[in-house]
Amino acid sequence: MPDGLQRLWRTFFDIDQILDILPEMLMVGVPNTLLLAFVAVVIGTIIGLVVAMMLISRNAALRMPARTFVDVFRGLPVILTIYLIGQGLPIAGIRIFGQSSYAYAAFALGLIEGAYISEIFRSGIQSVERGQMEASRSLGMSYFETMRWVIVPQGIRRVLPALTGQFIHIIKGSSLVYLLGLLPDQREIFSIASDASHISGTLSPMVAAGIVYLCLTIPLTYAVNAFDRRLRDGARRPIEPASLQPQQA
């Protein structure tokens, strides 16, 4: 093999290095990555639902702060947001999570996800036909009862695939929390690969990280697509009137 190809192979595809780093990635990196993504999505979902309700409010005093929140956290680079929250808050003396870099990382990712999820919720809620509100009000339900029991549940159901897709997005975004200097047992996939690459002087650990990320995201992507198709098929399937059902003898 020519020297150039050998260097290329050793840099990116050193099998020994890849096999050496995979156990730690699978045992430490994958659980931490999934836990970080899950916590961030839970935080983002709670924030997103509250902000979405503020965005569709008739009260400008509620809409403006919500719109500012969405514009800021969607407009800033993810890496900058993580750094400002994860490093900036403790430096400023705001130690709401003590010394836990892991908690600050989850909180930062949760705020970012909250901005995106709020727009997903807003679009889902506003996609519900206006007649649903009018019919519910005609039955004596208040505005808040209608939103709680009729409009919001339907809107959330319509955007479930998009919400699930955000989990895939945050798995990839979690790679940026290495900036906060996680403890050895808190490191996610990218942090482990980055440390190993600095020690070995090659990028083979990074390739191993890419393989692990693909093993996580590709099946989830296909699962989200299948979930989306199932919901769409269910929504298009007509409901057969009971009178047309065959009668049992």
* Average pLDDT figure: 86
What's the structural domain tally?
1
Q: Any idea what the CATH architecture is?
A: Orthogonal Bundle
Global geometry: elongated
The CATH homologous superfamily is named: MetI-like
Q: How many DSSP H or I helices? A: 10
Largest sheet: none
Rg computed from alpha carbons, rounded to a whole number of angstroms: 23 Å
List the quaternary state of the chains. single chain
Number of strands: 0
Q: Would you list the SSEs in sequence order as H and E?
A: HHHHHHHHHH
The CATH topology corresponds to MetI-like fold
What class do helices, strands and sheet pairing give?
mainly alpha
CATH level 1 class label: Mainly Alpha
Q: State the low-pLDDT regions, or none.
A: 239-249
Distance between the termini: 79 Å
In words, what does this structure look like?
The chain starts with a helix and ends in a 13-residue tail after the last helix. It has helices at 3-12, 15-55, 60-75, 78-91, 101-126, 130-138, 143-158, 160-173, 189-200, 204-236. The chain has a single domain (3-236), classed as MetI-like fold (Orthogonal Bundle). With 249 residues, the chain is mainly α. Helix 4 packs across helix 5 (101-126).
Labels describing this entry:
249 residues, mainly alpha, MetI-like fold, elongated, disordered C terminus
What's the SSE blueprint?
Layout: H1 3-12, H2 15-55, H3 60-75, H4 78-91, H5 101-126, H6 130-138, H7 143-158, H8 160-173, H9 189-200, H10 204-236
Helix pairs in contact: 2-3, 2-5, 2-8, 2-9, 2-10, 3-5, 4-5, 5-7, 5-8, 6-7, 8-10, 9-10
